[in-house]
Amino acid sequence: MTITEVMICLVIGGFAGVLGGLAGIGGSMIMLPALAVFVADANPGTAHHMFMAAAMVVNVVVSLPAALRHRKAGAIHNEALRVILPAMAIAIVLGVLISNVFDGLILRKILAGFIAAYAIMTIVKFFRKTDEPTLEATGLSKNRLGLIGLATGLVAGLLGIGGGVLMVPMLQVFCKMPIRNAIATSSAVMVMTAVIGASLKLGTLGPVHERSVVQALIIAAALSPTAFLGGRLGAALTHRLPLQAVRLVVSIALLIVSARMAADSFATHQATADNAADTPESEAVTAPATDS
Q1: Max avg pLDDT among 88-102, 135-149, 218-232
Q2: 133, 176 Cβ separation under 8 angstroms
Q3: What are the structural domain ranges in the chain?
């Protein structure tokens, strides 16, 4: 990596850490689009898998300080944690294995659509102004929590995200859990599941995609310092700021990012197709006949 790319990664890591800790989205929703746009690579298809591996490593760095802060604040719902964790751990393995089947450019398009859907859902929810539930009025059940863990793990492994972006709203909608407790519980789950997902993605990076594990770890190392500090700051602000308003601002930004990511993915795909079409086919060389 060049010095410029390292500096870019430090900035990306800082934003991802703050927003990941603050909104409970793990950081990958910021890192992956930003890496795709600002870190050049000759093979964007396999590069996305490398970026996924790096982002999943950083998710551990982001979620750990956030989870410790949430634990200190007493916001983690331990009953939900005990049920969701094993379900998500199994599902994230399956999600990573499925992701290895797809070209990285396809995964980038899927991720862009997922980010846009999340952003639109959050914006709509903000303007509906539903009442905040209380822990005494929860709809917790082992079946619901298990399904949330399975769905979150599958999507997290497939797209290389932390999973909080899906788990937090699902805990709110299906379990009537307050947003602060949902974010805290999500962060605690991601500390452990992100380790599993990152390890498997790194382990398959070379054999499946022919990309360097060392390069992925270098990118992760460049992202991690500011992501760690940002994660601590974001988790602290969770208990001080109006979260619904913050999530609205983040969602608007993510909507813009997803549009840019989708446009770049389609442009790259088209450029690849055009280059393939312009490549002349090799002509067979016929040896001249000789007279006997």
Answers
A1: 88-102
A2: yes
A3: 3-264
- Is residue 223 within 8 A of residue 13, CB to CB? The reply is yes
Express each pLDDT in 152-208 by its tens digit.
999 999 999 888 888 988 998 888 888 888 888 988 998 889 899 999 999 999 999
> What pLDDT, on a 0 to 100 scale, did the predictor assign at position 215?
93
